[in-house]
Write a structure and sequence with these properties.
Number of helices: 12
Order of helices and strands: EHEEHEHEEHHEHEEHEHEHEHHEEHE
CATH superfamily of the largest domain: P-loop containing nucleotide triphosphate hydrolases
CATH architecture of the largest domain: 3-Layer(aba) Sandwich
Shape: globular
Radius of gyration: 25 Å
Helix content: 25-40%
Largest sheet: 6 strands, mixed
Number of domains: 3
Number of strands: 15
Structural class: alpha/beta
CATH class of the largest domain: Alpha Beta
């Protein structure tokens, strides 16, 4: 669960945050350009260093508006009316949501008034803050980073994001700071009660659903998309058992995330999914499944969380006796990679069928902990292979030796084979379906791993729901 830890990259525009992000996650996910302000949406990726995985968030640069004709090259020019508000909004939200903050600065430009303003806010937090003095492209230039100690933050690391110089040292510092809080994370992992994240596009009715589940107006409800900005945890009792409901900000389609608080709300929604066991994906019945709904569902499954699809505002849809079945099929067609997730139809506004939400969430949560007898796992595996033998490559034939379920939460099935590299993702999908037909894994992903007798494992699969 260490992957739920968040490292946020903050700083003014054009200091190299996106280049550093790409370097840390090992992929070219962020668009980089010399024009300040290229990063317009929230990018997140996973980084791994010294045995610890964590999420890296690439943020948009803190925009500063200078008056026409201003000669002051510092981003803090007199007359920048929007500067203070923008600094406070973005820096403070980064402080609240991240576990470690990296202030990225341009060492060639030196310490600017904007760097000082951001550092002043970050110093007030109890979060670890590191300075990455970027664009040090030669060891002989390292002295240019020394000026940043004047910001009074915990550590300064000279780096070149574009060439990779010093990035290992920066990661050492990040992992050191994250490791100090892992004992708190272990305590969270010992907490085994049901945690439910309510997620979806803006204005789908998530806060209305939360209020109805609580029986009170716990969250502000508005017709304006994006009202909820924080991930809000609320404990309730369900048949005497503790359940935590995590409301979150609506996840907008990439490219339409506004600057400031709206931008950072995406971090909170993603973090809510990471902290939950079950995600309720709320879909607006008036709109149907959108591309963004597909992206959210994909993220939920990438995190191996259980899923319930909640179709809200069903009261506003004109329908007959066939409408619900037709709508269900259209959802399963669009979200074909999570066909195992239950679909329920509600009206959060008037409370119709809302009682089914917690019932479904509890069912899929219990399925996460179901363990199949090893004898049944091997029987199902043999029957599946006999019914549909796998295709081999060349003269070598793929052979399945034995299998067992080695973990729960979610279920993980380990297959011992002669050559893991020959296991095609489509055959993994076939095996998963056989186990789902035999046992009730409603709403819950099944992880599958393939290992050779000599310990070799299969390469990562391009398909969802599988862990090789």
């Amino acid at each position: 669960m260490a992957g739920n830890k968040i490292v946020a990259l903050v700083g003014r525009p054009n200091v190299g945050k996106s280049t550093l992000f790409n370097r840390l996650v090992g992929e070219r996910l962020a668009v980089t350009h010399e024009i300040p302000g290229t990063t317009r949406d929230r990018l997140h990726g996973e980084s791994f260093w010294n045995g610890l995985s964590f999420q890296v968030i690439d943020t948009g640069g803190i925009e500063v508006y200078q008056p026409a004709g201003a000669r002051d090259e510092s981003p803090l020019a007199e007359g920048s009316a929007d500067f203070v508000t923008e600094i406070i909004e973005q820096a403070m939200i980064a402080v609240e949501d991240a576990d470690v903050i990296v202030l990225v600065a341009d060492a060639q430009f030196g310490v600017t008034a904007a760097d000082e303003a951001i550092a002043e806010i970050l110093r007030r937090s109890d979060k670890p803050v590191l300075v990455a003095a970027n664009k040090i492209d030669d060891k002989k230039q390292e002295h240019e980073a020394y000026d940043f100690y004047s910001l009074g933050l915990e550590a300064v690391v000279a780096i070149s994001a574009i060439h990779g110089l010093g990035v290992g040292d920066l990661l050492d510092e990040v992992v050191l700071k994250l490791g100090a809080s892992l004992s708190d994370l272990d305590a969270e992992e010992d907490d085994d009660h049901l945690k439910i994240a309510i997620v979806g596009r803006p204005n789908a009715g998530k806060s209305t659903l939360l209020n109805k589940l609580l029986g009170e107006d716990r969250a502000i409800v508005s017709d304006v998309a994006g009202t909820t900005r924080d991930a809000i945890d609320t404990d309730i009792r369900y048949f005497g058992e503790r359940v935590t409901l995590i409301d979150s900000a609506g996840i907008r389609r990439r490219g339409r995330i506004e600057a400031g608080v709206e931008k950072y709300s995406v971090i909170r929604a993603m973090k809510a999914i990471g902290r939950a066991d079950v995600a309720l994906l709320v879909i607006d019945a008036n709109v149907g499944v959108t591309e963004q709904d597909e992206h959210i569902a994909g993220y939920i499954i990438d995190e191996y969380k259980s899923l319930v699809i909640v179709v809200n505002k069903w009261d506003a849809v004109e329908k007959d006796a066939f409408t619900m079945n037709a709508f269900s099929e259209s959802i399963r067609d669009r979200l074909h990679f999570v066909r195992y997730a239950p679909v329920i139809f509600i009206s959060a506004l008037d409370g119709k069928r809302v009682h089914q939400v917690l019932e479904a969430a509890y069912r899929v949560w219990e399925a996460r902990f179901f363990r199949m007898p090893t004898s049944d796992v091997n029987r199902l595996m043999r029957e599946a292979v006999e019914r549909h033998p796998p295709h081999g490559k060349g003269s070598k034939r793929l052979k399945f030796l034995y299998a067992s379920q080695v973990r729960t939460d979610p279920p993980l099935i380990l297959f011992h084979v002669n050559d893991p590299a020959q296991v095609h993702f489509s055959y993994k999908r076939y095996l998963e379906n056989q186990f789902r037909d035999a046992y009730n894994f409603e709403g819950t992903p099944i992880r599958m791993s393939f290992r050779a007798r000599d310990g070799r494992s299969a390469p990562p699969s391009p398909g969802k729901n599988f862990d090789s």
